[in-house]
């Protein structure tokens, strides 16, 4: 369509005269009923994920922002902080903070039939990353600045509003583009606690980016950002509460992925009269 003209364009009349299959109303209703079952289940899982996110975030705020952590009533305040809590830079609590990279788009060997997940910042939605839109090859990984991060690595977008500061947790090992940083914490903190610390810092990072006039934030600025780090015992307590929450979220997101794929595979067959 549109190729026979001097310009590759679709006209209004082409759209109006385009024939599409139109099953009987009873069949349409049956198709809608089947698809609705999938959509309802997906929506239910999404609501469960939202409730789990709110629970983990609410507990983080109560303990580490409002300072209503277990035993706070009997905890001494030393230099303005609960005893045992320290001011540190983000780089002090991580084994690795580094950006990703993009293999050359001009080399098909870096992309065709790739099996290594490659995350773009638009795929960061403050939750688990189970799959990606694009994959790169081993050659693409080895011939670019891309790095292969392990599962549970936290990714954070560092380029341009509205994505700057958005987070993701790798459900499987993967790479990312240069517009994101990967964080692997050391033994001082857990990745679950670090996730919500970075979430807490989002407004600050965006303010810094706006002040710089370029809407981006550098890895150096992120690494040097000063934060308050609770004592290890308190972080371990928090992690013990939220670890299962994160695991449940991951399982639900995997279920949503499978349901979405099954629904999308089934729809063309339903439209063709199969399964009815």
TrEMBL record:
Transmembrane regions listed in the UniProt entry: none
Coiled coil, from the record: 35-62
Entry annotated with the keyword Coiled coil: yes
SUPFAM superfamilies: DNA methylase specificity domain
Superkingdom: Bacteria
Any GO BP annotation: DNA restriction-modification system
Entry-linked Gene3D superfamilies: DNA methylase specificity domains
Gene Ontology MF terms in the entry: DNA binding; endonuclease activity
Keywords of this entry: Coiled coil, DNA-binding, Endonuclease, Hydrolase, Nuclease, Restriction system
Domain Type I restriction modification DNA specificity intervals: 5-52, 82-233
UniProt family annotation: Belongs to the type-I restriction system S methylase family.
PANTHER family per UniProt: TYPE I RESTRICTION ENZYME MJAVIII SPECIFICITY SUBUNIT, TYPE-1 RESTRICTION ENZYME ECOKI SPECIFICITY PROTEIN
Protein name: Restriction endonuclease subunit S
Source species: Phocaeicola plebeius
